[in-house]
Give the backbone structure.
Amino acid sequence: MKISKDDVIVHVYNMGGSFGRKAYHDYLLEACELSQKLKRPIKVIWSREDDITQGPYRCGGVSRMQGSIKDGKIATIHHYAVCESIDGQLRNSPKDGEAESGVGNEIGFEKNKYQIENIKVSTKRVATDIPIMWWRSVYSGSFAWAQECFIDELAHKAQKDPLQLRLDMLQDKGFRKVLETLAERSHYKMKPDANTAMGVAIFNSFESTCAICITVAKVDNGVKVIKVISVLDCGICVNPDMVKAQMSGNVIMGLSAATKEKIEIKAGIPQQSNFNQYALIRNDEIPEIETYIIADGEIPGGVGEPGLPPVAPALGNALFNLTNIRVRKLPFDLNNIQG
């Protein structure tokens, strides 16, 4: 039965969008179809099991990183990212096997300002029937992990301090100020004891630049995150308390995604259906969090998402500095660190 658009009224609730979930209208279509079949008004409520097993999910991806060192500096770098495409599922463009411009835009080095002589970014869509949609920081949260961990690998190859190597590659005043502020606030140059280590990462997304320093420590049953320092350049800051709250949320969500959260698909069936199977970070696992805001620009940038992408790579880099083990897959268990 077809209904004229003039006969349809949509009442949109003034409520949060759950990082884009509200914009994915599968539940709305289901309610409309059921109402038509029953020929009466209905109310559809999904159970948590319905919600978790039906998705849509954060886009998974794989990165292949290549690079070279010359005279103690990064001479070449190539980031090849492969993933499903949100636009590909919604609008069938790009096609399977074509480049995904959204991925390239988010991981492009023109936004992340490193001065490297030879840079290449490649992307490719691999289509899947698993429904995906926006997630906090969209693609940036996945691919900052590979890029910023690889920068550290190249720094160690060049026998240089990772933070100093980044500064050596940056001429942009904004990026330099973020990193220099991070080094100062985290007391980065102070040598930690043998049981603790720091890791750093910096990334630009949603028109803001965020750098993260994570301190980890050895404990009896593995490794524990004990402190996170974040520095955000958001251009203009109207409400500092709100910015700090958002940054804390970014850090907690980033740590949870890096160390806990996963959906496994077997024979097309999600294996996690509730929180007894889908783990989240707990209150007693949340570290001390400090946020410092730089707001001396003319254009306001994002706040709700840019603080997340550097979290996982900063943690991965800290783990390497503590254990000499390079973790290459998310999520990973802090109590069972394996390369």
